[in-house]
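Model it.
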Amino acid sequence: MISDYLSGAARLAAIASLGALAACSESALSQASEVSANDLAAKSKEQLVEHSIGDEYTPCEDCPIFVRVPDAPDSLRPIRYVSKYELTWNHFLAAYEDGSCELPKRWGWGGKDTPIVRSDPVFESLRLDWAITTMGPSDIICYQEWFKEKTGQFPMLPSSLEWEWFARAGVRDRKYPWGNEPDSTQEALDVSSIRDKLLPAQDLVDLPPRIRKIAVGAEVGLFEPNDWGLHDLLGNAKELTNEVITAQNVEQYNARLGRTLNVGGSRGRVTKGFVLSTQSERWKQGIGYSDYMIEMPTGFSTSVGVRFVLVEGQ
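Modeled.
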């Protein structure tokens, strides 16, 4: 040991040197940590412009897959990537199991369903590649913050016009993601038209009844994508936009949506697309159709999925 062969001033000098070395090491580690975080953010933003059109990009191990899309028109934000699928249960569980987000508090639409917790025997049945449609506003924000912490990028919800742009793959006035002719077999729109394809993939008989209540739509990616490689745009689940309807702008949205909206003292949210159904042919109205739902503290008034975009500079 140093004390065995150093004494007096020499020993004090050695101790001081060791202390200085430790302080330098701690400072170096702190600086390295800051550099690492900065490098992560810089590298992630760099990747936004490195990929070619059509390339797939996964920002982190448990993140959704994104597709590099052509540059957006000047009237829209500079979107560079769009999520290939709607956000799934498996994606959200990564943020939950990381300790960053809680499970959604809403587990059904009658208000009487028992929430599922980590110790629940049916928890493992949540590991689904199905759109998660029970998130509330705080759940979505929590996931966005987790994503940013992991990647240095903030995933954003599209506006209705941005959604229409990438749903049409940039083709002006295209009515459906696949073209202009209605065809209920192209996506998860009408159960009766796709039963043979849907049921084997869903395997509903193996899901606990409580999971079936929240497993809206079907497994993502069962159907062909649009021209830009994006799946389940018109069908499977409604998708949330960033547009908020309030008492101050409701008249504007009455005109845009072509009907009288009733938001009362709450906030409304514009949605795009349609949920897989057995009774509705509203999907035939196509990409241009917009709907709305009510935003409440605990969630939304009906099931809704999300599809994120990555915007340059965000």
